[in-house]
């Protein structure tokens, strides 16, 4: 066992112990302690990284990137606690993330166009994770965000082993160890402010690291694809439906409505599916679809498929999940079949484009495999769908 591996294991143990201790003690420290119970994650991560650095197993990026994303998280946490408008919080964290990528470009770690793309993607991913995590905390599913984060960490570990990159492996092990107590003992206060930005900081840090070290965007974003589609769908729906616009109008002025637009509530697709079925089933669908999306991206990586084609195949899986969750929430069999036929046509088009771009027949197996997974999953919902739309399903989509 080499020095790097020993240092990584030691740092992981330290991160786990510190995070577990904080997760057990903070909720007992009164109302304020419950509101910051998610601090177990950044504290465990910080101690783990300090141990990693002291053992000599840390790389420059494994210290710079978490430091950068934690600063962005602190801006979101303080802004949330102080009631700062959502626009200013996003602007502040976004400036830190994009500015950090500009600094990485100046250091020579990436090209200018890549730095801009990574920076913009990091800001979007940060906002999506914060939104989805807080929605889960408020809807009685506080463990789900941490479970998805651990799934993402496992995918990044597979990527790190395949590159290979010991620095990325070390950071991911420490991050996963710090997240685990938040899964076992999640914060119980629905107004808890720290866990969501901290999960976003960890996910963005290891995602950027993987991206910089030659992992494709489709690979590092695949575990987030399903959640990202859910959040985007929900935010668009708030603007496009009468009920959504009425909710924003109730906030008062347009400025307040813009703030309310980004406030997590009970209208994520996964939340609506959970209300129609059960929280356990909705979580199983979410984790299963995220796992399948990750497998599709890893298969595309092994076949050296262009990342755009891989991302489109991942999108087929995410779109299939969306159709089935909307179906469980109230779509009829006929409407669901229409969606599936449209998705099938899209998947076949992606397969044709993949063959056109790549030229290998085996490359077509990735989008076709994603489409096959969608149709296989349909067996789990088809018999449960009503033949006609439910009365309450007029606003399901």
TrEMBL record:
The chain crosses the membrane at residues 43-75, 87-105, 111-132, 144-163, 169-187, 194-212, 218-236, 282-301, 307-331, 338-356, 362-382. Keywords: Membrane, Transmembrane, Transmembrane helix. The keyword Nucleotide-binding does not apply. This is Uncharacterized protein.
